[in-house]
Design goal:
Chain A contains 13 helices and 16 strands. With 439 residues, chain A is α+β, with helices and mostly antiparallel strands. Chain A has one domain: Cytochrome-c3 Hydrogenase, chain B (Orthogonal Bundle), CATH 1.10.645. Chain B is 30% helix and 13% strand. By secondary structure, chain B is of the alpha/beta class. Chain B has a five-stranded parallel beta sheet, with helices on both faces. The chains are: A alpha+beta (439), B alpha/beta (286). Chains A and B meet through helix 2, helix 3, helix 4 and helix 5 of A and helix 1, helix 5 and helix 11 of B.
């Protein structure tokens, strides 16, 4: 038996892919998390109200989602409902994270695969696309776009990586019109930059498809999201499941998740895997686009129509995860501008609450899919904490897609060198986050 | 022919990647440095020879240790970046041995890197030239490290950057944690009943938590006045401020100082209490 090991870079965290081959046949493909964070253990005994400051440290990429999910779980226990303005500011905060994440995944993690370079920083010359006055080079433009997301997180979340402004009962302060105006200006100036880079990315993706002959030839799967079905909202209340043939199967709340999602662990990875009642499913951008009618903002909708004209919806090839990320990036910028145009400093931002013991669930749609925090609290302290992680929902789908790629490039005992690149493309299409997955 | 830029690398050990994300929020380094290794954004298998090696994350697995020991030979200067590299970080959660036990009992896997009994600061194994503290350090601090501004005069503590007014006659008799209410934007958070440790915490973050109303949790570590002392020195100083500015009972003050939210960071330069390590000299800390 031959074991092929591929360390994976340009993802969050430490992981490797191991493909086992015997007699020229692919036996298995494993996606292995090689680190462990262990939060669900060491937060035991923590005063519950400190969780919103501690849990963002699970991951510096998805920190905002953990921050908000943590607050929502505690609000569920304490029976408190945040005022409308607080909800709006939380939505803005989550959009900031989406902008930052999708820009990073699209331009920093996966663009190099389209350009066939080790990184966009590595060879500034080869990755040059120059459009006068808008974009001088991919690295600088990408950093500028993702910084706009971070600036929203700072504005709506206080701290820029591990936010602090979402509190039990609301948010700690509103946003003044002057600050909102400045933020809007920044977002408006990056829209043309995003469009140029994304159009370029789309073209490069078509060239890639022409070169390798596929957008991804894995079978359809179930899909999972907690965004709303008409116009995506990331401050979620329900999880939905779509079947491989495009039928919406189930809708359930976070507290019911165990009836639908099955978690298993294995020996070869510090991360586990979830299935929908034993079936492979996918979360993240492709799931959300497959499960929404429209994006609800004009430019994002025009790109969504372009996707629909080319592939129909729902659609399944995995390289489309990346194109969907671009659509969401534009949506998030447009939607953030909408929110910033409304008054954000005119009303109360939080309500009082009385801490109590019990069990609670907090659900948000993180960039990688539905995230749930469940806490049990006794005498004000955490006795049990469970983190249901979006990357873990995708684990089985990643491994099956890896097997499909391995079978494509390992034929009658010969290994095509394209396999290493394909492994990277498959994993990055799912944009996994290993720090979170080994919570 | 492009001019030769100094080369730098970022070695990521066990951590959350927040430090790397912070670095990506600044752009000036693009013009002043060549980034040659950083697995988050570059596909490259080994750390090539570099002028500056930034290390983020703590040493938590056998693989972390191997990578660290291998990488330091290629670097002229080694910088520990962020709480995890400096102290082992959040996964130590202070120094609770009971927690480590639970942690390890779940951490056995067939052929994966083994978990070490605790997450170590990198200077347990290698000599560190400079320390950049913060969880994470802000992009401005990264720039101060890589492309120092000679005009920059560091402030003494977070209070000096925060600008909230301390009032003599507003003394809370009870602390509530951060998770409550919308504090007055101009008055010191301690006056309003928040256990803010900004009085003794290193400046440089521009008070980004306290300005919007969240008490400082001390992620930058102790200010220069306390950095050379042991953990108790820092604790005592914060305790004294709380005693002076509030009517909160002493037991409650002590309990809050030992609670996880603060012990995450209050222990970051204090771990040497536990392992007999000397304080880090303050001239090495950015």
């Amino acid at each position: 038996m031959t074991q092929l090991t591929f360390p994976i870079s340009r993802i969050e965290g430490h992981a490797q892919v191991v493909i086992e081959v015997e007699d020229g046949k692919v036996l298995s493909s494993h996606f292995e998390a090689t680190e462990m964070r262990g939060f669900s253990n060491f937060v035991k005994g923590t005063p519950a109200v400190q969780m919103p400051v501690i849990t963002p440290r699970i991951c510096g990429v998805c920190s905002t989602a953990h921050h908000v999910a943590s607050v929502k779980a505690l609000e569920d226990i304490f029976g408190v409902e945040p005022p409308p303005l607080a909800k709006k500011i939380r939505e803005l905060l989550l959009l900031g994270q989406l902008i930052q994440n999708q820009a990073t995944s699209l331009f920093i993690f996966t663009m190099p695969d389209r350009l066939d370079v080790p990184s966009i920083f590595h060879s500034l010359e080869t990755s040059n696309i120059s459009v006068k006055g808008v974009c001088d080079n991919i690295a600088r433009c990408s950093l500028r776009i993702r910084k706009a997301g971070t600036d929203i997180i700072s504005l709506a979340g206080g701290q820029f990586i591990h936010p602090i402004k979402t509190i039990i009962g609301g948010v700690s302060s509103g946003i003044t019109p002057e600050k909102a105006e400045l933020m809007k200006k920044e977002l408006n100036t990056i829209i043309p930059v995003v469009r140029i880079l994304f159009n370029h990315y789309w073209q490069l993706s078509i060239s890639l498809k022409d070169r390798i002959g596929t957008w991804g030839d894995d079978e359809p799967t179930y899909y999972l999201t907690s965004t709303t079905p008409i116009k995506p909202s990331f401050d979620s209340s329900h999880i939905r499941i779509l079947s491989p043939d495009g039928v919406e199967m189930e809708t359930f709340t976070a507290s019911e998740f165990r009836n639908y999602l099955v978690f298993t662990e294995n020996e070869y990875s510090y991360a586990g895997q979830t299935s929908y009642k034993g079936n492979i499913m996918r979360a993240n951008s492709l799931a959300r686009i497959n499960m929404t009618e429209t994006m609800g903002t004009p430019i994002a909708d025009s790109y969504m129509s372009r996707l629909e004209r080319a592939f129909g919806l729902p659609t399944h090839p995995i390289l489309l995860f990346d194109l969907c990320r671009g659509i969401e990036l534009i949506y998030a910028i447009e939607r953030a501008i909408e929110i910033l145009s409304e008054p954000l400093n005119h009303d109360i931002t939080s309500v009082a609450y009385t801490p109590s013991d019990g069990e609670g669930y907090g659900l948000v749609e993180a960039p990688r899919g539905p995230l749930i925090h469940r806490y049990n609290v006794l005498d004000g302290k955490i006795t049990e904490a469970e983190f249901v992680i979006p990357t873990v929902h995708n684990m089985l789908a990643i491994e099956r897609a890896l097997t499909v790629a391995a079978n494509r490039y390992i034929k009658s005992g010969q290994i095509n060198l394209e396999l290493e690149k394909a492994v990277g493309r498959v994993v990055r299409a799912f944009d996994p986050c290993i720090a979170c997955a080994t919570k | 022919m492009a001019r030769q830029l100094p080369r730098f690398a970022v070695l990521q050990l066990s951590g959350c990647a927040g430090c790397e994300v912070s670095l990506l929020n600044s752009t000036e380094w693009l013009y002043n440095f060549e980034l040659v290794y950083m697995p988050l954004v570059i596909s490259a298998s080994n750390v090539p020879s570099v002028d500056v090696l930034l290390v983020s994350g703590g040493v938590q697995t056998s693989e972390d240790l191997y990578k660290l020991l291998r990488a330091v030979n290629s670097a002229k200067e080694i910088v520990a970046v962020g709480t995890c590299a400096i102290s082992g970080g959040i996964t130590n959660l202070g120094n609770r041995d009971d927690v480590r036990q639970m942690f390890l009992s779940e951490a056995e896997r067939f052929h994966l890197p083994r978990m070490l009994p605790k997450c170590h600061p990198i200077d347990d194994y290698v000599e560190v030239n400079r320390y950049l503290s913060g969880c994470p350090p802000t992009p401005e601090l990264f720039m101060q490290l890589l492309v120092p501004d000679p005009e920059y005069v560091p402030k003494r503590n977070v209070c000096q950057e925060c600008g909230r007014k301390k009032l003599k006659d507003m003394k809370p008799d009870h602390f509530f944690y951060s998770q409550r209410g919308s504090p007055d934007p101009d008055i010191c958070l301690i006056n309003q009943g928040y256990p803010c440790v900004g009085t003794s915490t290193r400046a440089g973050c521009n008070a980004l938590c306290t300005k919007p109303g969240h008490p400082c949790v001390g992620c930058r570590g102790p200010s220069d006045a306390f950095i050379d002392k042991n953990a108790q020195g820092w604790f005592d100083s914060i305790g004294k401020v709380f005693e002076k500015m509030t009517d909160v009972p002493t037991e409650e003050i002590q309990a809050i100082l030992r609670s996880p939210q603060l012990s995450l960071f209050l222990f970051q330069f204090a771990d040497y209490d536990h392992v007999n390590k000397k304080p880090r000299p303050k001239d090495k800390i950015v």
